[in-house]
Design a protein that fits this description.
Largest sheet: 4 strands, antiparallel
Low-confidence stretches: 1-22, 235-249
Distance between the termini: 39 Å
Number of helices: 7
Structural class: alpha+beta
Radius of gyration: 20 Å
Number of strands: 10
Length: about 290
DNA sequence: ACGCCCTCCTGTTGGC
DNA sequence: TGCCAACAGGAGGGCG
Protein backbone atom coordinates (compact mmCIF):
# COMPACT_ATOMS: atom_id res chain seq x y z
CA UNK A 1 0.00 0.00 0.00
CA UNK A 2 2.67 2.44 0.97
CA UNK A 3 4.47 1.88 -2.25
CA UNK A 4 1.48 3.23 -4.13
CA UNK A 5 1.05 6.36 -2.15
CA UNK A 6 3.27 8.38 -4.42
CA UNK A 7 0.49 8.17 -6.95
CA UNK A 8 -2.05 9.82 -4.75
CA UNK A 9 -3.13 13.10 -6.24
CA UNK A 10 -5.07 14.65 -3.48
CA UNK A 11 -2.74 14.69 -0.54
CA UNK A 12 -4.53 14.13 2.69
CA UNK A 13 -1.75 14.57 5.11
CA UNK A 14 -0.18 11.94 7.25
CA UNK A 15 -1.82 8.76 6.16
CA UNK A 16 -0.39 6.86 9.07
CA UNK A 17 -3.19 8.40 11.07
CA UNK A 18 -5.76 8.33 8.35
CA UNK A 19 -5.51 5.25 6.26
CA UNK A 20 -8.79 5.48 4.47
CA UNK A 21 -8.69 9.06 3.31
CA UNK A 22 -7.46 8.37 -0.14
CA UNK A 23 -10.29 5.96 -0.77
CA UNK A 24 -13.00 8.45 -0.51
CA UNK A 25 -12.50 11.50 -2.63
CA UNK A 26 -15.16 14.09 -2.00
CA UNK A 27 -15.73 17.54 -3.42
CA UNK A 28 -12.45 19.17 -2.34
CA UNK A 29 -10.32 16.28 -3.55
CA UNK A 30 -12.15 16.12 -6.87
CA UNK A 31 -11.72 19.86 -7.25
CA UNK A 32 -7.98 19.45 -6.71
CA UNK A 33 -7.90 16.73 -9.32
CA UNK A 34 -9.79 18.99 -11.72
CA UNK A 35 -7.32 21.81 -11.22
CA UNK A 36 -4.43 19.42 -11.60
CA UNK A 37 -5.71 18.08 -14.89
CA UNK A 38 -6.34 21.57 -16.22
CA UNK A 39 -2.92 22.81 -15.18
CA UNK A 40 -1.19 20.09 -17.11
CA UNK A 41 -3.45 19.23 -20.02
CA UNK A 42 -5.67 22.17 -20.92
CA UNK A 43 -5.60 22.79 -24.67
CA UNK A 44 -3.70 19.59 -25.30
CA UNK A 45 -4.67 17.11 -27.96
CA UNK A 46 -5.11 13.42 -27.21
CA UNK A 47 -3.26 11.33 -29.75
CA UNK A 48 -3.61 7.88 -28.26
CA UNK A 49 -6.06 6.13 -25.98
CA UNK A 50 -5.19 2.94 -24.13
CA UNK A 51 -7.55 1.05 -21.86
CA UNK A 52 -7.91 -2.26 -20.09
CA UNK A 53 -10.62 -3.92 -17.98
CA UNK A 54 -13.01 -1.00 -18.11
CA UNK A 55 -16.14 -3.15 -18.14
CA UNK A 56 -17.22 -2.13 -14.66
CA UNK A 57 -16.26 1.49 -15.11
CA UNK A 58 -17.84 2.35 -18.43
CA UNK A 59 -21.50 3.31 -18.52
CA UNK A 60 -23.47 0.93 -20.72
CA UNK A 61 -24.47 3.90 -22.83
CA UNK A 62 -20.93 5.14 -23.17
CA UNK A 63 -19.26 5.36 -26.53
CA UNK A 64 -15.85 3.77 -26.86
CA UNK A 65 -13.03 5.53 -25.04
CA UNK A 66 -11.32 5.56 -28.44
CA UNK A 67 -13.66 8.40 -29.36
CA UNK A 68 -11.47 10.60 -27.21
CA UNK A 69 -8.67 10.19 -29.70
CA UNK A 70 -7.94 13.44 -31.55
CA UNK A 71 -9.96 15.38 -28.99
CA UNK A 72 -8.61 18.67 -27.71
CA UNK A 73 -9.28 19.31 -24.03
CA UNK A 74 -11.21 22.56 -23.81
CA UNK A 75 -12.13 22.48 -20.13
CA UNK A 76 -12.93 20.31 -17.16
CA UNK A 77 -15.99 21.11 -15.10
CA UNK A 78 -16.92 19.70 -11.74
CA UNK A 79 -20.28 19.22 -10.14
CA UNK A 80 -20.17 17.58 -6.76
CA UNK A 81 -17.84 14.63 -7.10
CA UNK A 82 -18.29 14.31 -10.84
CA UNK A 83 -15.90 15.65 -13.43
CA UNK A 84 -16.92 16.54 -16.95
CA UNK A 85 -14.28 16.81 -19.61
CA UNK A 86 -15.25 19.07 -22.46
CA UNK A 87 -13.36 18.31 -25.63
CA UNK A 88 -13.79 19.31 -29.23
CA UNK A 89 -16.33 16.65 -30.08
CA UNK A 90 -17.03 14.53 -27.05
CA UNK A 91 -17.45 14.91 -23.33
CA UNK A 92 -16.27 12.51 -20.67
CA UNK A 93 -18.20 12.27 -17.45
CA UNK A 94 -16.08 10.74 -14.70
CA UNK A 95 -16.42 9.79 -11.06
CA UNK A 96 -13.59 8.50 -8.88
CA UNK A 97 -15.78 6.21 -6.84
CA UNK A 98 -13.80 4.93 -3.92
CA UNK A 99 -10.35 4.28 -5.25
CA UNK A 100 -10.10 6.14 -8.54
CA UNK A 101 -6.97 8.20 -9.13
CA UNK A 102 -5.98 10.35 -12.09
CA UNK A 103 -2.22 10.59 -12.39
CA UNK A 104 -0.01 12.66 -14.63
CA UNK A 105 2.83 10.86 -16.33
CA UNK A 106 2.78 7.93 -13.94
CA UNK A 107 3.95 4.48 -14.84
CA UNK A 108 1.32 1.96 -15.76
CA UNK A 109 0.49 -0.28 -12.83
CA UNK A 110 -1.63 -3.26 -11.96
CA UNK A 111 -4.93 -1.43 -11.80
CA UNK A 112 -4.33 1.25 -14.40
CA UNK A 113 -7.46 1.21 -16.55
CA UNK A 114 -7.10 4.12 -18.94
CA UNK A 115 -4.28 6.17 -20.42
CA UNK A 116 -4.68 9.28 -22.52
CA UNK A 117 -1.51 10.14 -24.40
CA UNK A 118 -1.17 13.75 -25.45
CA UNK A 119 0.50 15.34 -28.41
CA UNK A 120 3.23 16.92 -26.32
CA UNK A 121 4.33 13.55 -24.95
CA UNK A 122 2.64 13.81 -21.56
CA UNK A 123 -0.03 11.39 -20.46
CA UNK A 124 -2.82 11.08 -18.00
CA UNK A 125 -3.82 7.75 -16.57
CA UNK A 126 -6.71 6.51 -14.52
CA UNK A 127 -6.12 3.86 -11.90
CA UNK A 128 -8.92 2.25 -9.96
CA UNK A 129 -8.39 -1.02 -8.03
CA UNK A 130 -11.98 -1.51 -6.91
CA UNK A 131 -13.57 -0.24 -10.08
CA UNK A 132 -16.21 1.73 -8.24
CA UNK A 133 -15.44 4.65 -10.47
CA UNK A 134 -17.44 5.72 -13.46
CA UNK A 135 -16.64 6.80 -16.99
CA UNK A 136 -18.98 7.80 -19.78
CA UNK A 137 -18.14 9.22 -23.19
CA UNK A 138 -20.96 10.94 -25.06
CA UNK A 139 -21.16 13.56 -27.81
CA UNK A 140 -20.66 17.13 -26.65
CA UNK A 141 -24.18 17.99 -27.69
CA UNK A 142 -25.87 15.38 -25.50
CA UNK A 143 -26.87 15.88 -21.92
CA UNK A 144 -26.00 13.35 -19.27
CA UNK A 145 -28.80 12.14 -17.01
CA UNK A 146 -26.77 11.55 -13.85
CA UNK A 147 -24.97 14.84 -14.18
CA UNK A 148 -28.20 16.70 -14.76
CA UNK A 149 -29.87 15.08 -11.76
CA UNK A 150 -27.20 16.26 -9.33
CA UNK A 151 -28.23 18.82 -6.76
CA UNK A 152 -26.47 22.18 -6.48
CA UNK A 153 -22.75 22.02 -5.85
CA UNK A 154 -21.99 22.19 -2.14
CA UNK A 155 -19.58 25.13 -2.47
CA UNK A 156 -21.66 27.02 -5.03
CA UNK A 157 -23.91 29.96 -4.21
CA UNK A 158 -27.00 28.07 -5.27
CA UNK A 159 -26.79 25.87 -2.20
CA UNK A 160 -27.76 28.10 0.70
CA UNK A 161 -29.29 27.81 4.13
CA UNK A 162 -32.64 28.78 2.62
CA UNK A 163 -32.26 26.10 -0.04
CA UNK A 164 -31.50 23.44 2.55
CA UNK A 165 -34.33 24.61 4.75
CA UNK A 166 -36.84 24.42 1.92
CA UNK A 167 -35.58 21.04 0.74
CA UNK A 168 -35.78 19.50 4.18
CA UNK A 169 -39.34 20.58 4.97
CA UNK A 170 -40.90 17.46 3.51
CA UNK A 171 -38.20 14.95 4.43
CA UNK A 172 -38.09 12.68 7.42
CA UNK A 173 -34.69 11.28 6.44
CA UNK A 174 -31.89 11.59 8.96
CA UNK A 175 -29.95 14.75 8.18
CA UNK A 176 -26.62 13.00 7.68
CA UNK A 177 -28.16 10.65 5.13
CA UNK A 178 -29.95 13.60 3.54
CA UNK A 179 -26.73 15.56 3.09
CA UNK A 180 -25.06 12.61 1.41
CA UNK A 181 -27.81 12.29 -1.20
CA UNK A 182 -26.11 13.78 -4.26
CA UNK A 183 -29.42 14.77 -5.76
CA UNK A 184 -30.11 17.10 -2.86
CA UNK A 185 -26.66 18.65 -2.70
CA UNK A 186 -23.66 17.47 -4.67
CA UNK A 187 -20.24 16.79 -3.22
CA UNK A 188 -20.76 15.85 0.40
CA UNK A 189 -19.48 12.40 1.31
CA UNK A 190 -18.98 10.53 4.51
CA UNK A 191 -16.10 12.63 5.84
CA UNK A 192 -17.60 16.05 5.31
CA UNK A 193 -21.06 15.04 6.45
CA UNK A 194 -19.71 14.09 9.85
CA UNK A 195 -17.37 17.06 10.06
CA UNK A 196 -19.94 19.64 8.98
CA UNK A 197 -22.58 18.38 11.39
CA UNK A 198 -20.06 18.45 14.19
CA UNK A 199 -19.09 22.01 13.36
CA UNK A 200 -22.74 23.01 13.15
CA UNK A 201 -23.54 21.19 16.40
CA UNK A 202 -26.35 19.21 14.83
CA UNK A 203 -26.97 15.58 15.75
CA UNK A 204 -26.55 13.35 12.64
CA UNK A 205 -29.73 11.43 13.42
CA UNK A 206 -31.92 14.50 13.49
CA UNK A 207 -34.89 14.22 11.19
CA UNK A 208 -34.31 16.57 8.24
CA UNK A 209 -37.61 18.39 8.59
CA UNK A 210 -36.94 19.09 12.27
CA UNK A 211 -34.08 21.44 11.45
CA UNK A 212 -34.54 25.12 12.17
CA UNK A 213 -33.60 27.85 9.72
CA UNK A 214 -30.64 28.70 11.91
CA UNK A 215 -29.43 25.12 11.91
CA UNK A 216 -29.73 24.91 8.12
CA UNK A 217 -27.74 28.10 7.81
CA UNK A 218 -25.12 26.75 10.13
CA UNK A 219 -24.78 23.42 8.33
CA UNK A 220 -24.39 25.09 4.94
CA UNK A 221 -21.97 27.70 6.23
CA UNK A 222 -19.76 25.15 7.94
CA UNK A 223 -19.82 22.72 5.03
CA UNK A 224 -18.62 25.41 2.64
CA UNK A 225 -16.06 26.73 5.10
CA UNK A 226 -14.53 23.31 5.72
CA UNK A 227 -14.49 22.42 2.03
CA UNK A 228 -12.99 25.74 0.98
CA UNK A 229 -10.31 25.44 3.59
CA UNK A 230 -9.53 21.95 2.36
CA UNK A 231 -9.29 23.05 -1.26
CA UNK A 232 -7.20 26.05 -0.30
CA UNK A 233 -4.76 23.86 1.55
CA UNK A 234 -4.21 21.47 -1.28
CA UNK A 235 -1.27 23.65 -2.26
CA UNK A 236 1.03 21.77 0.01
CA UNK A 237 -0.43 18.37 -0.43
CA UNK A 238 -1.38 18.53 -4.07
CA UNK A 239 1.85 19.77 -5.52
CA UNK A 240 3.74 17.64 -3.05
CA UNK A 241 1.72 14.51 -3.34
CA UNK A 242 4.60 12.22 -2.50
CA UNK A 243 3.23 11.69 0.94
CA UNK A 244 5.66 8.96 1.79
CA UNK A 245 8.23 11.59 2.65
CA UNK A 246 6.12 12.68 5.59
CA UNK A 247 5.47 16.18 4.29
CA UNK A 248 2.05 17.65 3.94
CA UNK A 249 -0.38 17.13 6.74
CA UNK A 250 -2.82 19.82 5.74
CA UNK A 251 -5.88 17.70 5.77
CA UNK A 252 -5.91 15.63 8.90
CA UNK A 253 -5.76 18.83 10.86
CA UNK A 254 -9.33 19.52 9.79
CA UNK A 255 -10.71 16.34 11.12
CA UNK A 256 -12.39 16.76 14.44
CA UNK A 257 -14.48 13.61 14.63
CA UNK A 258 -14.12 11.50 11.50
CA UNK A 259 -12.42 8.18 12.18
CA UNK A 260 -11.82 9.19 15.78
CA UNK A 261 -14.14 6.98 17.79
CA UNK A 262 -13.43 7.09 21.51
CA UNK A 263 -11.07 10.03 21.20
CA UNK A 264 -11.95 13.15 23.18
CA UNK A 265 -14.17 15.69 21.47
CA UNK A 266 -12.04 18.75 20.69
CA UNK A 267 -14.77 20.95 22.16
CA UNK A 268 -15.91 19.14 25.30
CA UNK A 269 -13.58 16.15 25.72
CA UNK A 270 -16.49 13.72 25.70
CA UNK A 271 -15.53 10.55 23.77
CA UNK A 272 -16.51 10.64 20.09
CA UNK A 273 -19.29 8.21 19.17
CA UNK A 274 -19.49 6.01 16.12
CA UNK A 275 -22.78 4.78 14.67
CA UNK A 276 -23.96 3.40 11.31
CA UNK A 277 -26.40 5.33 9.17
CA UNK A 278 -27.46 4.10 5.78
CA UNK A 279 -24.75 1.48 5.97
CA UNK A 280 -22.01 4.03 6.57
CA UNK A 281 -20.06 5.07 9.62
CA UNK A 282 -20.94 8.33 11.27
CA UNK A 283 -18.81 10.04 13.88
CA UNK A 284 -20.12 12.68 16.25
CA UNK A 285 -20.14 14.01 19.79
CA UNK A 286 -23.25 13.11 21.75
CA UNK A 287 -22.44 15.79 24.26
CA UNK A 288 -22.25 18.90 22.12
CA UNK A 289 -24.27 18.00 19.04
CA UNK A 290 -27.57 18.06 20.88
CA UNK A 291 -30.09 15.25 20.90
CA UNK A 292 -31.83 13.35 18.18
C1' DA B 1 -41.24 9.26 -2.24
C1' DC B 2 -39.54 6.56 1.51
C1' DG B 3 -36.69 3.07 3.57
C1' DC B 4 -34.56 -0.96 3.27
C1' DC B 5 -31.44 -4.19 1.07
C1' DC B 6 -28.46 -5.74 -2.64
C1' DT B 7 -24.76 -5.31 -6.13
C1' DC B 8 -20.33 -4.03 -7.96
C1' DC B 9 -14.75 -4.86 -6.25
C1' DT B 10 -10.31 -5.80 -3.85
C1' DG B 11 -7.09 -4.47 -0.11
C1' DT B 12 -7.15 -4.72 4.71
C1' DT B 13 -8.34 -6.52 9.04
C1' DG B 14 -9.53 -9.64 12.62
C1' DG B 15 -10.56 -14.12 14.36
C1' DC B 16 -9.11 -18.67 14.99
C1' DT C 1 2.64 -17.64 11.77
C1' DG C 2 -0.97 -18.45 8.24
C1' DC C 3 -5.34 -18.81 6.35
C1' DC C 4 -9.84 -17.19 5.21
C1' DA C 5 -14.10 -14.80 6.11
C1' DA C 6 -15.75 -10.42 7.08
C1' DC C 7 -15.58 -5.76 6.19
C1' DA C 8 -15.49 -1.13 4.02
C1' DG C 9 -17.77 2.10 1.06
C1' DG C 10 -20.29 5.68 -3.50
C1' DA C 11 -24.00 5.12 -5.94
C1' DG C 12 -27.45 3.00 -8.64
C1' DG C 13 -31.17 -0.19 -8.75
C1' DG C 14 -34.94 -3.04 -7.12
C1' DC C 15 -38.63 -3.90 -4.11
C1' DG C 16 -42.61 -3.24 -1.05
Amino acid sequence: MRANRSLIWFGLGDLREFEYAYRMPELPEVECVRQGILAEFLGQKIVQVWSRDTGNLLDQKSLSLQKMKSAVLHSVERRGKYLRWITSDFQLIAHLGMTGVWSANAERQKHTRVEFRFENGTWLSYTDPRQFGYLCVIPSSESHARWMALGPDAIGTEWSGVHLWKETRSSRVEIKVFLMDQNHVAGIGNIYASEALFAARVHPQRCAQSLTRAECNSIVRHTKKIMMLSIHNRGTTFSDYRLTNGKGGAFQGFLKVFQKPGKPCPRCRNPISQIVQGGRSTFFCEECQGGK
